[in-house]
Automatic annotation (TrEMBL):
Location of the Aldehyde dehydrogenase domain: 41-487, 538-756
Taxonomy of the source species: Bacteria, Pseudomonadati, Pseudomonadota, Alphaproteobacteria, Hyphomicrobiales
EC assignment: 1.2.1.3
Active-site residues (renumbered): 266
Name by which UniProt lists this protein: Aldehyde dehydrogenase (NAD+)
Length: 791
């Protein structure tokens, strides 16, 4: 054997991490009292426990108290009691507590890492070098936000008591992503870890005791779906932050509909890993190993769909197979292990089932020739080729070490394939041509895009999804908004439609020419599909005119027109800004006419009407001006990388406008949506639709491209329902009665569109607080594009 042969024949010896500290900690604790409520350790009121076991052996680790509804109630009560004092504590004081948590975690860093690997099965290299350091960084980073809160987030207050439910794949890290921003914002929390991985949260609660976190500020309860649901449904909670599957996310969206609870959902994914032919293939292979086999593929943003350009596909797959053969599957506590066991037998069975189904549907599944440990829930890394885009392995989140591969011919096809999923969490783009990568990144429907890299995270950079991957961001400035409530000026309660529409309408007095306003779809005035109209009364109860009674079909046409309009989202911000200025200019040219219309329809004084028109023009001016100013940011995480936090339009936004201040309310909602490049389907005030239909005459000669704004008049509640259920609507803003608002939220679960409602109240549109960034923030998605630099 020569030296080279000897080198290649060399094997790693075992390098086990010591576990005696972790075992001693396990032995020292009474896990039958594992609920940390109001600063004390409690057993479940009903005395129940559940088992947590070690994925590498299946052995029982502990029997943990299983919280019931009474325990959740006690935890929420404790959090509510602690809230006034904690939210009034100075930012500096809160910063010191967050910093103390971070420092105490640092002192127990190794114990956290070993416990996490024992309980979850993740390789110690990952828990030691990634999960735990990132969790610590989160607390220390957020100490700063606590201190600068009032200056950085004026017009905001802490949202209140927060219920947080997290999954098992990154138990400590997800806890940090939830608790650190909540405490920084002045909220108090009730957090429930996943039932497979309760341990590091218990150690964390001990840290809170030592770090001077006041009693009741952090409450950690244990249990499964029932405990989670009890938190979600508790009336004492003002915000739910959930990380987990899209399926449960939808249940939670529905359960919280109409409750007024703020909600953020970090859900599943099926992220694309796109390799162009000019990529550095060896780096891309290493990236792929990280992308899909990190944490056994149990990663929400796992690069589980490899899209590789045709010309290099064969060579690339060959390299991937060689690399897969070298992945070491084994004990999570061995420092050489690349792939540990899956978290539980149920997860192993699920992964096997999906592979079998994928193979049945035509995929060819390949695994390296390696032996698995004889105990535990191990699974070999798996590569699926010949995967059709509709194959279950290309569409479903496997949440295991399984990579589905497809090839593409050109850039357009790569983008189309990458976006061919109901999810939108993350994507990786590999190309040595940075122009190409930055051309592709904005076109990917994903909240995070890594250029020539994968799975990069930092406390200063937002993380979160588009589409069915959920909404809201975690991390940095973006993440702080999730725990703050904007102080919006509350307007009048909105009565249900039936009450407001039952106006007696007398015949017109013949003074004006009878008019029937049409709908405005795709830049044209069109008759409503049903050929019915809605009588509109003047303030004196006379017939002012008729407006089209739009129906489901009209909304469908309007959504298609909005989706087809590329000219508006693709326009430069300066271009959009000029068009909005021109819109304002043209409205001002007809100010007298609109003021007279307001007097006639609503009965306000001439002075008040003129003020409403003038303020509407001012609003258009404001958003025209902000179009090119409400920009993204550049983050500088602690690595050789910049993160571009880009502001992108949400997409097609449905807007159901209120009756109060009908012109100003309509303009105040439509203008910010347009300013950020969204296309809009607007349902104007049901009672005063003629103001909006008069407005489309102005829109027609204001250079707004066809389809950018569509107006469908009719019954607000019915049309809001159609918009809520439409899966090609990305966002929905509803200012209607409480029932319509609640229904819109519940009906939005098809595609998890972003819904903003007034919960049955309108806003006072005359207030300057009903304009500006608070609304613009709802009109955008933040996409974080990570771009590494250096040779
Ligand atoms: P899961 O949805 O089954 O469970 C998540 C948590 O919700 C657990 O704590 C569970 O006890 C609780 N729960 C279950 N049913 C509930 C209900 N009806 N009401 C309230 N709580 C309930 O998900 P999982 O299997 O634990 O985790 C895997 C999923 O998490 C994957 O889909 C993954 O993509 C996702 N995930 C997403 C992110 C992200 O940031 N987007 C991060 C990590 C994991």
């Amino acid at each position: 054997m020569n030296i080279l042969e000897r080198y290649h024949a060399m094997e790693y010896g075992p390098a086990p991490e010591a576990r005696n500290e972790a075992d001693a900690w396990l032995a020292s604790r009474d896990f039958a009292k594992a609920l940390f409520i109001d600063g004390a350790w409690k057993a479940a009121a009903n005395g129940k426990t559940f088992d947590t076991s070690e994925p590498s052996s299946g052995k029982l680790l502990a029997k943990i108290s299983d919280a019931g509804a009474a325990d959740i109630d006690a935890a929420v009560t404790a959090a509510a009691k602690a809230l006034p004092k904690w939210s009034a504590t100075s930012g500096y004081q809160r910063a010191k507590v967050l910093y103390a948590i971070g420092r105490a975690m640092q002192r127990h860093q190794r114990l956290f890492a070993v416990l996490e690997s024992i309980d979850n099965g993740k390789p110690i290299r990952e828990s030691r070098d990634i999960d735990v350091p990132l969790a610590i960084r989160h607390f220390i980073h957020h100490a700063g936000w606590a201190q600068t809160l009032e200056k950085d987030f004026p017009d905001h207050k802490p949202v209140g008591v927060v219920g947080q439910v997290i999954p098992w794949n990154f138990p400590l890290l997800m806890l940090a992503w939830k608790i650190a921003p909540a405490l920084a914002a002045g909220c108090t929390v009730v957090l429930k870890p996943a039932e497979f991985t309760p341990l590091t949260a218990i150690l964390f609660a001990e840290i809170c005791e030592r770090a001077g976190v006041p009693k009741g500020v952090v409450n950690i309860v244990q249990g499964g779906p029932e405990a989670g649901a009890a938190i979600v449904n508790h009336p004492g909670v003002q915000k739910i932050a959930f990380t987990g599957s899209s399926e449960v996310g939808k249940i939670i969206r529905k359960a919280t509909a109409g409750s007024g609870k703020k909600l953020s959902l970090e859900l599943g994914g099926k992220s694309a890993f796109v390799v162009f032919e000019d990529a550095d293939l060896d780096s891309a292979v290493e990236g792929l190993v990280d992308g899909i086999w990190f944490n056994q593929g149990q990663v929400c943003c796992a690069g589980s769909r490899l899209l590789v350009q045709e010309g290099i596909a064969e060579a690339f797959i060959a390299k991937v197979k060689v690399r897969m053969s070298r992945l070491r599957v084994g004990s999570p506590l061995d420092k050489n292990t690349d792939i540990g066991p899956l978290v539980d037998r149920t997860q192993l069975d699920r992964v096997r089932g999906l592979i079998a189904e994928g193979a049945k549907q035509g995929a060819v599944c390949w695994q390296p020739d390696a032996a698995l440990p004889t105990t535990g829930y191990y699974h070999l890394p798996t590569l699926a080729t010949s995967v059709a885009p509709a194959n279950i392995l290309a569409q479903e989140e496997v949440f295991g070490p399984v990579l589905a591969t497809m090839s593409f011919r050109n850039t357009e096809e790569a983008i189309e394939l990458a976006n061919n999923t109901r999810y939108g969490l993350a994507a990786s783009v590999w190309s040595e041509n940075i122009n190409l990568a930055l051309h592709v990144a904005p076109q990917l429907k994903a909240g995070v895009v890594w250029v020539n890299g994968t799975n990069m995270f930092d406390a200063a950079c937002g993380f979160g999804g588009y589409r069915e991957s959920g909404f809201g961001r975690e991390g940095g400035r973006e993440g702080m908004f999730e725990y703050l409530a904007a102080k919006l000026p509350v307007g009048p309660a909105i009565k249900p439609t039936a009450a407001s529409s039952a106006q007696p309408v007398e015949q017109a007095d013949g003074a004006s020419i009878d008019r029937t306003a049409k709908l405005f779809i795709g830049g044209k005035q069109v008759r409503p599909d049903g050929n019915y109209s809605l009588a509109v009364a003047t303030a004196k109860g006379k017939l002012a005119g008729e407006a089209g009674l739009g129906n489901r079909k009209d909304i469908r046409d309007a959504v298609s027109a909005a989706r087809a309009c590329k000219a508006w989202p693709d326009a430069t911000t300066f271009n959009r800004s000029q068009v909005l200025y021109y819109f304002a200019e043209n409205l001002s040219g007809r100010a007298d006419e609109f003021a007279a219309r307001l007097v006639e329809l609503t009965g306000v004084t001439a002075k008040a009407a003129r003020e409403e028109v003038d303020l509407s023009i001012e609003r258009l001016f404001l958003y025209a001006g902000l179009t090119d100013k409400f920009e993204g940011r550049v983050h500088q995480p602690p690595a050789r990388v910049v993160t571009l936090a880009l502001h992108e339009p949400v997409g097609v936004v449905g807007i159901v406008a209120p009756d109060n201040q009908p012109l100003l309310g309509f303009v105040s909602l439509v203008a910010p949506a347009l300013a950020m490049g969204n296309t809009v389907v607007a349902v104007p005030s049901e009672r005063y639709p003629l103001l909006a239909t008069d407005l489309y005459q102005v829109i027609e000669y204001s250079d707004i491209p066809a389809g950018a704004i569509n107006i469908v008049t009719g019954r607000s509640a019915e049309l809001a329902g159609v918009l809520a259920k439409h899966d090609d609507v990305d966002g929905l803003w509803v200012f209607a009665d409480a029932e319509t608002c609640a229904k819109a939220e519940a009906d939005s679960i098809g595609n998890l569109k972003r819904v903003w409602t007034g919960n049955g109240r309108s806003l006072d549109w005359t207030s300057s607080e009903a304009a500006g960034e608070a609304l613009l923030r709802r009109a955008i998605e933040v996409k974080n594009v990570w771009v590494p630099y250096g040779d």
